Amino acid sequence: MSLDTAPGCRDAPVLKERGQHEVFCGLTSIIWLHRKMQDAFFLVVGSRTCAHLLQSAAGVMIFAEPRFGTAILEETDLAGMADAHDELDREVAKLLARRPDIRQLFLVGSCPSEVIKLDLARAAERLTKVHAPHVRVLNYSGSGIETTFTQGEDTCLAAMVPVLPEADPADLVVVGALPDVVEDQLLGLIRDLGIENVRALPARRADEDFGIGPATRFILAQPFLGETASALARRGAEHLPAPFPFGERGTTAWLRVLADEFGVSPERFDEVTAAPRARAQKAVAKARETLADRSIFFFPDSQLEIPLARFLTTECGMEAMEVGTPYLHRGLVGPDLDLLEAGQISEGQDVDRQLDRCRAAQPDLTVCGLGLANPLEREGLTTKWAIELVFTPVHGYEQAGDLAELFARPLRRREVLAL
Question: Which of this chain's residues are annotated to bind [4Fe-4S] cluster (predicted)?
Answer without folding.
Answer: 25, 50, 111
